[in-house]
Write a structure and sequence with these properties.
Helix content of chain A: 25-40%
Largest interface: A-B, 26 and 21 residues
Radius of gyration of chain A: 23 Å
Order of helices and strands of chain B: HHEHHEEHHEE
Order of helices and strands of chain A: EEEEEEHHEEEEHHEE
Oligomer: heterodimer
Distance between the termini of chain B: 27 Å
Distance between the termini of chain A: 43 Å
Shape of chain B: globular
Strand order of the largest sheet of chain A: 10-1-2-11-12
Strand order of the largest sheet of chain B: 1-2-3
Structural class of chain B: alpha+beta
Number of helices of chain A: 4
Number of helices of chain B: 6
Number of strands of chain B: 5
Strand content of chain B: 15-25%
Largest sheet of chain A: 5 strands, antiparallel
Structural class of chain A: alpha+beta
Radius of gyration of chain B: 22 Å
Helix content of chain B: 25-40%
Strand content of chain A: 25-35%
Shape of chain A: globular
Amino acid sequence: DGTNLSIGFSTDPTANIIDGSSIDHGITKAPYERSFSPYEFNGGTTLAISGPDYAVVAADTRLSSGYEILSRNVSKLHPLTDRCVLGSAGCKTDVDQLRSVLDIKMKVYQHNHRKPMATPSVAQMLGNTLYMKRFFPYYSFNVLAGIDSEGKGAVYSYDAIGSFERTPFSASGSGQSFLIPLMDNVISHKNRCDERRDLPVEEVVEIVKDAFLTAGERDIYTGDAVEIKIITSEGIRTEMFNLKAD
Amino acid sequence: DEMSVLLASKVRRAGGMRFDGSTRKTMNPRAIAMLMSHLLYRRRNAPYYVEPVIVGLETVLVKEDGLMEMQTTKAIAAAATTNTNEEESSQPSSLSKAPEATIRYKTKTIQRPYLCTSDMLGAQSTSHSFVCSGVASRSLHGTAEALWRPNLEGEELVDICGRAFVSALERDCYSGYGAVVYLIQAKETTDGGNESDVCIVEYCISSRND
């Protein structure tokens, strides 16, 4: 019967009195120190899906800090070339700095090689850039989406220190655990008995909107609006889709 | 284990089950959920490490046309009486006449699904759509939220539930190896009485062995 919380095998008659003193709230008994953390989580979710000749990348536009919303209209997607878009969730300042560094490296490449960087090369460069800060990482959870040199859609998933892999789809940020199993089922067609068919880009965009509605319902850091960029060999097209603002 | 034995014994006593196993009546899932919350909160200082999910069909008396329950009409009547006591009430006059008017309506008994999940201290969370708990609960929230829609019936509901569940399990290293889906359905009894039979069908889903 758990109504009596016995403290060891003490024979002290006061040991059986139920009051709050045996519960250590971490304040009175053990001293603790408030330390400065250089990282802050500004929330958000990004999702990227690749297709035979397109790539779709989407991210919500909410910027939050703790339980507060700082802005409802901040973009998390950044075109690096006109065939390649980087989506990042995490700490906004690290994301912005990472983008500046990448932009500079892209410019240097363009000047040296007289052509824009191909998407697999951008992927490798991003991985290397993240690993250069292995011991004080960029708090940035990236997805890279673009068209590779053969014209096929390419999506790369990253962790915070530069480990990357080309995948059929990728989700990162606070809503990733809501989206990834859904994408497994719908995009990769896992655990399904019906026939698999190729999805056209319009249907994938609808799936992305549904996915963000789901994440927006259950994740407090995701909401307000979704910015969707569709990358084909013609270029990048942008769409906005409103979500619940709660 | 102790939890389930404890709960089973309490439910049996409450449900009036006799020693030979025959029942007088079955316990409402809402009542079982309340009992569960109570049992969990009794151990507030040393909780049972369980996060239960209680799902069942409860017998509800509703009006034939709308779905307004018996007790809701009483609440409106009570509110109307208090409003008539105030001076210069802004209520429309029809509402103040409600206690005097006799309301006649047909009622019927339906079996309505009741879904409830609880944290390890007994705080309940109910829903009309779905509830989930466990190590993969975030993934389950995602898949269930996307795949659920209202008025799913029978085999389709099992299919959706199984898909959502297995997709979420595949992404979690602590869960897997297969799943069991229980479909709780109300079947109309042949003698046309008020009680309808509730049957539970078990579906086993096999999953990859990794």
